[in-house]
Design goal:
heterodimer, A: alpha+beta, Folate-binding fold, four-stranded antiparallel sheet, 6 strands, 18% helix, 34% strand, B: alpha+beta, FAD/NAD(P)-binding domain, six-stranded mixed sheet, 24 helices, binds zinc ion
Chain lengths: 94, 1012
């Protein structure tokens, strides 16, 4: 069972308080109607499924109910980094 | 046989205990294990083996024991398949063998017919010849150990969450030293020290009779640890009789502790746990798990009284017992000489057979020779003699021919065989470091040629290994190794320590200086050379597996069932690998190990469940009206943890009679239902309207305050995930209802869109399911009752229309009244603050008597909605249904500027195929036959083309109705299809049905305004 540091509660908590919410940074297309079936399928179904450090979304279901980002090794399951969406946005802006 | 009391014994002769084993009474002492007490009483046989039903004796003294499985106690305290070597004796203990060695055994009788059954025997014999079904029951009843418990466990089990900086696993010399080093080297680090035995010290106890310094060190170290443990704000916890059985991600380790002696913990003052499951999260782990001895291989090595050398030693030193008078020790390392010397101290004669040639003898061999122990160097045991118990051994001279890497036939048996008589044979083929736990969560092993064993990988984050698990055998070296490693742990914790690794003495007195695996083909090719005693796997099974193409060790394991037993191959597996290496002509390192997975030892289901049993198994949710339903005699069903009234039987009605009555009441006059469990989400903010139109398929921008609207929610794949009615309170405030079971996931999904994609929208969500009670008043006379209950609202159908809501006062309570309907009848849902639920319900019931108001449950609700063709998400849909599939194209908005969730998928070609499953009605030709839900619709070729999702008897129509998913169903109206059902005692039957509209009743919606 993972121990995940919630960036909102600012504490490590057991995995059973959280739910995984898929790969991170998959933005919903601005104009879905303009996409081909293939492009739409890519957004809906295809994921990188990578071996290595992977950014994913988690939600603190039994805690603050906030969605946030976790960078986790899919090999060792080590959590390398956690961040809020705001933190990532401001990082990208600067 | 019991020996004279001596210094290292842990048995207290002043405290005799009585116990029963296999229906016979025995005596033992406090400090005994069940096994040691039985050895003291000269009990020889403990089990029958799994496959052949051979009588088996005891092999080990601890967790490694494969044979002596017992079922402890009876009735509510019955616990199957415990190791006799791990049960501490208590007064009145009763146990039986898991497989009785004294009963006649069918397996032992078929043995002469088939000689030995090779791996895959049952498959080859029975399944290939298609007679498996005939013999299966008989064979299954013979297989396995013990019987499952029949009555409820009367004990309780606890879970304790623990947090620590350092977890030391193993309380022998290495573990004790490491714990002390951490405690003295840090002022803050907390330590938990865990050991599976009742006492700390591990194998060190064996040194007490021969090494005074060992005794002194142990007393001092134990004293220091106890002092740390007992001081205020102690940083040390010591858990004994506690096995660390699983290591999961992020250093989460589970430890099962047997409370005290394992006897009943039921006191007058209350009940304390029989076992405690410690859930430990630690920063650092120090593994000091020691090593298990492996047996030597020879013919009929499974006879009773063939034991492990180190176990014989432990029985003498810890428990004062020995299983024989005339002993042969056989092995390939120095540990057998220690056992011989310890035996000599009790005036027990022994002979040593050592496969290693003479020359370069270590001190201990010289010492053994000096005290007159007869030693056969360069000799091997070829065969154990005896029928069921060992009476002697055949030995022969052996010689080493080749060295690695050319392993083939490195041993040659030379010279004549001769026989030595004995009544106990103790063997040692070297030691297997207990690497299991380290491998549970990513640790790897490597084969170490020096110690001839698989060792844990050297470096691993937040983990150190020390002592025997690190192939350090001599106790003083284990101590140094532990100190060195504890310093690394401290430094990893950020403590300022000087890491000054001390050199090991590397004294020859080290059991890890073993010789190679003794696996000459002359022995391996004999029958009855057992590798895995519990599962009866022999060397020939491994050879057969390899011959038949299963050459990977993982395949060999599965083909032969090697290591599948409750002991998980603790003694046998590594020998199995060596045997495979010999047959494959490959080095051990290439063959590798099988995968070690949790759990290291058996874990009681009771311990896993802890206190989460009975009423605490799952949360139970009750509406505030619940007691009233109970008073009305309702039967309940659980929906998403809610206890919902299912139906309200009257005067001995069965479910059908009750539902028919309830449905008729709703259709003809008036019914009432507790709808409080529907999920309710309060949505506020200036973008609330925009938000709803993004997550629902239909239009929301023009929904006026005072109105309600039904919405269908899809995911991006275009599949229906939920539905419900949302109410517009004002332009910035809506209340969404969801299905009872879908409330939590819908809420979470909505939050996800808001937090991850649309954080710029001004929308706030709150779950208000528990904040409101909802009483639905349903039926043609609903308006009349509402006029009576709520005088401040105009219920005239022209001013208070269908799909509108009004604020009002019901029996003096502020309410929101929604005019919505899930039955097609005139209906009002009265929403009040949750705690008024019971009051309003009872008032409605009282005031409604005039119209014979009838409470109805979920079953009638289902019938009423099915008559109208209203879907239930999750029953009529399954996550692969689009709105088009359920014939609800009308709910897909065409002109919304924002491409709502799922919309783009609706134009994907696959979702527009006419071959998709589509929702239709089914009318059986025989209108009294009610189809079973889940039954398949079959084509004339017998292939499934759909299935029944909902099926009921409709009292108002006087016939059965069903909803179904049928391939291309919407273009098959009025066609006849066949539904295949199983009828009791009549077998399969095909029921002809007509495909119809999914709306069966009030097709034009004329009932919704009710009676004036
Ligand atoms: Zn949180």
């Amino acid at each position: 069972m993972f121990s995940i540091h919630c960036p909102y509660c600012k504490e490590p908590r057991d995995q059973n308080e959280f739910s995984p919410a898929g790969e991170a940074f998959i933005a919903r297309p601005e104009n879905p109607e303009a996409l081909s079936d293939e492009q739409w399928a890519d957004y809906v179904f295809y994921r990188t499924n990578l071996k290595g450090d992977h950014w994913e979304q988690w939600v603190h279901t039994s805690g603050c109910r906030k969605y946030f980002l976790v960078k986790r090794s899919t090999i060792s399951h080590e959590v390398i980094e956690v961040a809020t969406f705001e933190e990532i946005d401001s990082e990208n802006a600067s | 046989m019991r020996l004279e009391k001596h210094a290292s014994s842990l048995v207290d002769y002043t405290q005799p205990l009585s116990f029963v084993f296999n229906n016979k009474a025995y005596k033992g002492f406090k400090g005994d294990t069940l096994a040691s007490a039985l050895v003291a009483n000269d009990v020889l046989y403990y089990a029958r083996s799994f496959k052949y039903g051979r009588k088996r004796g005891i092999i080990g003294a601890g967790v490694e024991e494969p044979n002596a499985l017992v079922s402890l106690e009876i009735g509510g305290r019955y616990t199957p398949n415990m190791k006799a070597t791990e049960i501490m004796l208590y007064d009145g203990l009763s146990a039986v063998s898991s497989s009785n060695p004294h009963s006649i055994d069918f397996r032992a009788m078929i043995k002469p017919l088939h000689r030995f059954m090779p791996a895959g025997f049952y498959y080859k014999t029975f399944i290939k010849q298609k007679v498996w079904s005939i013999v299966e029951d008989r064979l299954r009843s013979l297989s396995g150990f013990s019987k499952a418990p029949l009555v409820t466990d009367e004990d309780v089990y606890d879970h304790i969450f623990q947090h620590t900086e350092v977890l030391v696993i193993g309380g022998g010399v290495a573990g004790m030293s490491a714990a002390l080093e951490v405690l003295s080297g840090s002022k803050v680090a907390r330590v938990i020290l865990v050991d599976e035995r009742e006492n700390l010290g591990g194998e060190l106890t064996n040194e007490f009779t021969t090494d005074q310094t060992a005794t002194l060190w142990f007393q001092e170290a134990k004293g220091k640890l106890q002092k740390y443990r007992d001081e205020d704000n102690s940083r040390l916890k010591i858990l004994t009789s506690a096995t660390a059985y699983a290591w999961y991600d992020h250093n989460y380790i589970e430890v099962l502790q047997t409370h005290g002696t394992g006897q009943s913990m039921i006191h007058e003052s209350g009940q304390t746990a029989r076992k405690v499951l410690h859930k430990i999260r630690t920063k650092e782990v120090i593994l000091a798990t020691g090593a298990h001895e492996r047996p030597m291989l020879f013919e009929t090595n499974d006879l009773a009284n063939i034991m492990l050398s180190q176990s014989v030693r432990r029985y003498i030193n810890e428990f004062n017992v020995v299983a024989g008078k005339e002993i042969v020790l056989y092995g390939n390392n120095d540990s057998i000489y220690n056992t011989a010397i310890d035996l000599s101290k009790h005036n027990i004669k022994s002979k040593v057979v050592d496969v290693r040639a003479s020359g370069n003898e270590s001190e201990i061999i010289l010492e053994a020779k000096k005290i007159g122990i007869e030693v056969f160097q360069g000799f091997a045991v070829l065969k154990a003699k005896g029928k069921s118990r060992v009476t002697g051994v055949e030995i022969s001279q052996v010689e080493m021919q080749a060295k690695p890497p050319h392993w083939k036939s490195k041993w040659r048996i030379t010279g004549d065989t001769k026989t030595i008589n004995c009544d106990l044979l103790a063997t040692s083929g070297g030691f297997n470091p207990v690497v299991h736990l380290d491998c549970h969560c990513g640790g790897k092993t490597y084969f170490d040629e020096t110690s001839q064993s698989f060792l844990p990988q050297k470096e691993r984050k937040e983990r150190q290994v020390c002592g025997a698990v690190n192939s350090v055998g001599f106790w003083k070296d284990a101590m140094i190794d532990a100190k060195n490693k504890a310093q690394l742990t401290l430094s990893s914790l950020g403590e300022e320590v000087e890491v000054t690794p001390q050199k090991l003495t590397n004294r020859s007195h080290n059991y890890f200086n073993v010789d190679q695996f003794f696996t000459p083909l002359e022995i391996l090719n004999k029958p009855k050379v057992f590798i895995d005693l519990q599962n009866d796997v022999t060397t020939l099974d491994v050879a057969l597996s390899i011959r038949e193409g299963y050459q990977s060790i993982e395949h060999i394991k599965r083909y032969t069932a090697m290591g599948f037993g409750t002991d998980q191959g603790k003694t046998g597996n590594i020998n199995g690998i060596a045997v495979a290496a010999e047959f494959l002509d490959a080095p051990m390192s290439e063959v590798g190990t099988t995968t070690f997975r949790p759990a290291y030892t058996g874990v009681d289901f009771g311990a896993m469940a802890g206190r989460e049993v009975g009423d605490f198994f799952d949360p139970q949710r009750f509406t505030t009206i619940h007691d009233s339903h109970v008073n009305s005699g309702a039967k309940f069903e659980v929906v998403g943890q809610w206890y919902r009234p299912w139906y309200y039987p009257k005067n001995g009605e069965d479910i059908h009679q009750a539902v028919n009555r309830e449905c008729r009441a709703v259709r003809s006059s008036l019914g009432m239902m507790d709808a409080s469990t529907l999920g309710k989400i309060d949505i506020q903010g200036k973008d609330a309207r925009e938000f709803l139109s993004r997550v629902y398929t239909n239009a929301w921008m023009k929904l006026a305050p005072g109105s309600c609207r039904y919405g269908l929610m899809c995911n991006e794949k275009g599949m229906i995930i939920d539905d419900g009615v949302s109410t517009c309170i004002n332009d910035h405030h809506f209340i969404m209802t969801t299905t009872t079971g879908g409330a939590a996931s819908v809420y979470s999904t909505l939050e996800m869109w808001l937090q991850t994609e649309w954080s710029h929208l001004d929308v706030h969500l709150s779950s208000v399911t528990d904040q409101f009670s909802t009483v639905a008043v349903v039926g043609p006379n609903a308006r009349k009752l509402m006029n009576k209950l709520c005088p401040d609202v105009d219920f005239d159908s022209k001013s208070f229309k269908f799909m509108q809501w009004r604020p009002g006062t019901v029996c003096g309570v502020e309410a929101r009244i929604m005019r919505i309907s899930f039955s097609g009848e005139l209906a009002y849902e009265i929403n009040i603050a949750a705690n008024y639920g019971r009051f309003i319900w009872d008032e409605v019931a009282r005031e409604g008597q005039e119209w014979n108001i009838t409470p109805y449950g979920t079953e009638s609700m289902h019938v009423l909605r099915a008559e109208k063709g209203f879907i239930i998400v999750g029953q009529d849909t399954d996550g692969s249904m689009t709105p088009m599939d359920v014939n609800m194209n009308w709910i897909l908005a065409k002109n919304k500027p924002f491409s709502y969730i799922g919309r783009r998928s609706f134009s994907v070609s696959a979702l527009n195929s006419n071959d998709r499953l589509q929702l239709v009605g089914l009318l059986t030709k025989d209108d009294q036959v009610v189809l079973p839900e889940g039954a398949h619709i079959i084509s004339n070729k017998g292939i499934s083309i759909g299935y029944v999702t909902s099926s009921y008897y409709s009292p108002v129509l006087g016939r059965s109705i069903a909803l179904a998913q049928l391939k291309g169903g919407l273009s098959k109206m009025s066609e006849t299809v066949l539904v295949k059902i199983v009828q009791e005692k009549q077998g399969l039957k095909e029921i002809p049905c007509e495909v119809s509209s999914s709306v069966f009743y009030d097709i034009n919606g004329e009932k919704v305004d009710g009676n004036e």
